[in-house]
Amino acid sequence: MAALPKRIIKETERLYSEPVPGITAVPSEENLRYFEVTIEGPSSSPYADGEFQLELYLPDDYPMCAPKVRFLTKIYHPNIDKLGRICLDVLKDNWSPALQIRTVLLSIQALLGAPNPDDPLANDVAEDWKKDEQAAIQVAKDWTAKYATKKEN
After folding, report:
1. What range(s) does the UBC core domain occupy (predicted)?
2. Distant-in-sequence contacts of 31-39, Cβ < 8 A, 24+ apart
3. Rama region for 22: left / alpha / beta (φ>0; ψ in -120 to 50; rest)
4. Which residues of the chain have pLDDT under 70?
5. Which terminus of the chain faces fewer neighbouring Cβ atoms within 10 Å, N or C?
């Protein structure tokens, strides 16, 4: 395996030295481009008290292209599909090499706090959200309780 670029090493070190509240990202021992990520749902969102597992992978051409990020925890959100793929501008058209892993993870955490049914990836969820937002929020809370409850140590 090729040596890791300095940039990835620096970003990884920064994730440890300056942790982001509510977010952990730990590189896999087998592949230092693969991160196991945990994001806590924002307190004012239907995902509050949830702890979501994600995977983040840095492709060979990172930082010229965006990291690949996917939810592993099942989530009811208009911008995250059943496969855990995320509809987020910084992962697509608005990616810039100036962005970092932490910026991406903060953006995902912000997306949990502000679902956008007008730019959906999960069309069925977005439609539910538009038809009856309160009911959709309740489903999101139920799914969070069912699938994303924090593990007690």
Report:
1. 3-149
2. 31/1, 32/4, 32/8, 33/4, 33/8, 33/57, 33/58, 33/59, 33/62, 34/58, 35/101, 37/69, 37/105, 39/105, 39/108, 39/109, 39/112
3. left
4. 1-2, 151-153
5. C
Residues labelled as active-site residues: 87
Q: Find the length of the chain.
A: 153
What pLDDT sits at residue 149? 84
Q: Which two tokens stand for residue 76?
A: 């009811």
3-state secondary structure of 92: coil
Sorted by where each begins, the domain ranges of the chain are: 6-147
- Does the domain spanning 6-147 belong to CATH 3.10.110.10? yes
pLDDT in tens, 37-76: 999 999 999 999 999 999 999 999 999 999 999 999 999 9
Give the contacts of 50 (CB within 8 A, at least 6 positions apart).
40, 41, 73, 144, 145, 147, 148, 149, 150
Residue ranges of the alpha helices (H) in 4-153? 6-17, 101-113, 123-131, 133-147
Q: Give the integer Cα–Cα distance in Å for 60 and 76.
A: 31
